[in-house]
């Protein structure tokens, strides 16, 4: 089916590419796609196009990659040119998903129906950059997608619709991301169909209370602090898969990445052992004492190696009971 509602799309990672693909497949014309400039990535640090750019180029859609949209920022000329291009591109609405650039009021005012954002949390909880990671890390029972009408605040706009979903006990950021990306794609297409049909979308202000902020994941957060309860460490490991991974550093300086782990009640030797002490090594897992309970590591990676289930990891490792992991410096 072909639609007449013209959609400018702004987004960068895989989460956004899935929404763009759904909008395109539904038959909405997309006269312009905005995405972040190509970034160095991988071993060779070659410039790589974002998933959104790759989709756009494969489907013959025009792409713009301004480094900024703020005239008073570091790139005033490029921002001005991009804003001129937006004004010169006939369209009805702009859809924004994990774009990564701030949109000033001047840009929000250009589309006749404003800018609709696809955000991966149940707002106002987890506004900001890393809502999927933070929801898992905090032990939330559910999360979802919120569509909102954008304003200049950080994820503060009025809510158009939402889709809720449970967070399962074995969810990682990778698995939850994929379900949320699909839900976001479905929700935005439904909203665009409704906008075309009725000429407007109803929205409601976000609740005044319950707002939390999902700070971007910093590399230093990867270090597992064994003084914390095992249940929190297990959530951290799931939240940090696929990035940056949990890191446990042996006293000899070997940094192991921890990709899967489960919390146990402290039994026997784990109860007396200092946090960070390896109390048991078996094909079932490497058990490490923590501040409350113990953590069984079941998927590990040594420097330069691959992610391996514990049985395979132990075949090429000298990890043994009695060894200790360093405690990170408290920040």
Radius of gyration over all CA atoms, rounded: 23 Å
CATH superfamily of the largest domain: Formyl transferase, N-terminal domain
End-to-end Cα distance, whole Å, is 55 Å
Beta-strand portion reads 15-25%
User: What is the residue-mean pLDDT, rounded to a whole number?
Assistant: 95
The biggest sheet, with number of strands, parallel, antiparallel or mixed sense and barrel status, is:
7 strands, mixed
Quickly give the structural class.
alpha/beta
Number of separate strands: 17
| Name given to the CATH architecture of the largest domain | 3-Layer(aba) Sandwich
Give the spatial strand order of the biggest sheet.
Answer: 5-2-1-6-7-9-10
Helix content: 25-40%
Order of SSEs:
EHEEEHEHEHEEHEEHEHEEHEEEEH
Broad shape? elongated
**CATH topology label of the largest domain:** Rossmann fold
Give me some keywords for this one.
alpha/beta, 2 domains, 17 strands, 27% helix, elongated
Protein model, in words:
InterPro entries: Fmt, Formyl_trans_C, Formyl_trans_C_sf, Formyl_transf_N, Formyl_transf_N_sf, Formyl_transferase-like_C_sf, GART_AS, Met-tRNA-FMT_C. Its EC number is 2.1.2.9. One of its GO terms (cellular component) is cytosol. The chain is an alpha/beta fold and 331 residues long. It folds into two domains: 7-214, Formyl transferase, N-terminal domain (Rossmann fold), CATH 3.40.50.170; 219-315, Formyl transferase, C-terminal domain (Methionyl-tRNA Fmet Formyltransferase, Chain A, domain 2, Roll), CATH 3.10.25.10. It is 27% helix and 24% strand. The chain is built from nine helices and 17 strands. The strands form four sheets. A seven-stranded mixed β-sheet has the order 5-2-1-6-7-9-10. A hairpin with a 4-residue loop joins strand 15 and strand 16 (294-301). Helix 1 runs parallel beside helix 2 and helix 5 runs antiparallel to helix 7. The chain is elongated and about 70 Å long. The N and C termini lie far apart (55 Å). The relative contact order is 0.10.
